Amino acid sequence: MGKAGSGSGRGRWTLRRRVSVLVVVVGLVLSGLAAGEATVAAKNREYLDVLLNKTGPLRIDVQGLLNAMVDQQNGVRGYAVTGDQRELGTYRDGVEKERELIASMDALLDSQPAIRRQLYAVRDQAEQWRVTVAVPAIDTTATSGTDAGQALLTAQRTQLFDQLRAAVDVLREQILELRNRVAEDARQSGNALVLLLIIAAVVVLVAGTALLTSLNRLIIGPVTALAAQVRQVAKGNYDRSIERVGPPELARLAEDIDGMRRKIAEDLAEVREARTRIEWVNSQLEKQAEELVRSNRDLEQFAYVASHDLQEPLRKVASFCQLLQRRYAGQLDERADQYIAFAVDGAQRMQRLINDLLAFSRIGRLTSGFSDIDLNQLMTEVSSQTETAQRNADGELTWSELPVVRGEEALLTNLLVNLVSNSLKFRRPDVPARVHVTAKRAGDEWEITCRDNGIGIEPEFADKIFVIFQRLHSKDAYPGTGIGLAIAKKIVEYHDGRIWAVPAEGGGTEIKFTLPAVASLDDLVEGPGAEEAETIDETGPVDQATAGTASERPAAETAGDSSGEQPVAGENPSGDRPTADENEEDSKRKQRDEVTT
């Protein structure tokens, strides 16, 4: 609070404290006025009650009391003159009326002892008049006649009634004086009540004016100034500091907003710095993308060269070496025949290596599109392609009920041919090879298992077999290029799956891989191969299948790391459909072979 007040004289008290003090002061003043008004109003009601419910009836009753006494006097005189008993009825009614009125007036004079004493004096004088004048006159008239009764009504006795009348007049004057006094008190209390109401209205008006002034000076003005500063910051002027204005609450708010401004300025500086770094990284990525485009173009050119220009010399070497074998077999010494066999074998292995590298590089670049594939039908094709390998290994390929998956048929065929051929190749000596393929649902994917009873694999080498050119045995023990399982891994990853190897219980190996499950036709997920097939740059021909269409090649050619029939020199081992240039080149090669023969 002290810190806030040091910046502004208005900030010595908090807004809450100012409003609380104003409310308390106004409340106390209004409470005092309300208490005074309640007291005055109660007095005013008391005065009005006396004026309306006491003095008014008292004035009527005192007049009735006088009339009742006059009726008594007239009744006694009439009876004394006429002797008529009916005149006594007037007297008796007057007496009864007098007593009722005195009782009624006595009940109204609880708070007026002086008037009550005067009422009792009137009552006593009336009783004295009746005892002294009225009763003797009535009795005398009844016993001695009217003349005797009239004789008792002398002037002296009449004077007693005049005194009674004077006492009633005094009582009337006292009641009138009470009425005038109460009326004046009621008028003064009414004026006081009006004055208190005026004071309360003035207090409310002054408090409202003070509140509006305070709101304008302590809230509206500072908030308007703060809003103007915030708008400047909102327009992007993040370097403008927010000044502390108004009471401590608004000063703290301004300080918090300024803290937000500083944080935004810092974040903005970081964003600008990050944007600069991102722009630099993007420029580097663009350069790398251009380099990748050039690299891919070079790779495509290499694929074209490898599939045509690079293989052509190999075909020639293999062809002429085979001609030497056929023509001069047995005519040269044993060492020469061995050299020729080495040359033929090297050329053939080079052709297989080139074909496998081409197959590896084409995965994911060229596609025929994804479709629904029944793995049961696919396994029939795989069994057909690996029939020779099964026969050579005295093996058997079986499979359980397999699902329908979404993928590219040529690639999945190549995948399963590689796995089955690999299992048939790495068999135990003198043990018939057995390969079994199963599938099970695992969440949102299918887990396919290819199990064999071969030589097995140590757990520490389970990941290395999927690395390109990684071999655990020499090529003399198990021939191959070391690319087959690398091709399998790339095909599985192209289908958003995983592949791994584990030792099988009881010996052998289990190679497992996953493929995304297709729940229903309405829930098919288009794979990355659903787009139109890509084409190679104009620097080379257009290939029609990835890694060679499996149905167009023998199993040994499709499986990169399998053992089977060796390609014959002069054939198209890559599995590509020959182009016009290749046909022309093959024609020239055949002519050269015929001339040589």
TrEMBL record:
HAMP domain span: 217-269
EC number(s) reported in the record: 2.7.13.3
Pfam families: CHASE3, HAMP, HATPase_c, HisKA
Record's keyword annotation contains Transmembrane: yes
Residue span, Histidine kinase domain: 305-519
Any Gene Ontology CC annotation: plasma membrane
Superkingdom classification of source: Bacteria
The protein's name: histidine kinase
Species per Swiss-Prot/TrEMBL record: Micromonospora polyrhachis
